[in-house]
Amino acid sequence: MDKTTVLESSRLRIRFAGPEDIAYVLALEHHPANRDFVWQGTAEQHQQAIDQPDYALMIVERTSDEQAIGYCLCWLNRTFHWLELRRLVISQKGQGYGQETILCLFEYFFDTLGVNKIWLDVYPHNQVGIHLYEKLGMHRDGRLRQNYYSDETGYLDQVVYSILRTEYAAQKR
Prior knowledge:
The chain has helices spanning 22-30, 43-51, 97-112, 127-135, 165-172; strands at 6-8, 12-16, 55-62, 68-77, 82-90, 117-122, 139-150, 154-164.
């Protein structure tokens, strides 16, 4: 993955993160509006994602004022030609930035890098995320029962969604 690439849409610029962005990512993950919906990494884990060639820690910025409004973390599996969208956090909710970010990611990873599938998992209580993924044509693949554990929440299920390159191409037509 070329980490100098910048993705753009009408309102957003998505760039690969650097070490200077880690504090921002950690703050988003731990914010009360986000922490129940996204796994919180450590500074060291985020630095590893920056350093590893098959991970993409990316910062989402508004083009109008270059303000950071979110981040995403992706893992590219080159052997099986799929991408896992591991995390997506947008600070300014309800303005369509999450949808626009995902559509940019779809275009880049499907059309430019040629992946065959993009998948993610989501906690069942994240109804906003589930609604968005279904709106974007992602398929509900299944539910992993009690697949995640933390001392704060106990066991949680995870729901898996995916979209294939052929499905994405059909939607674009």
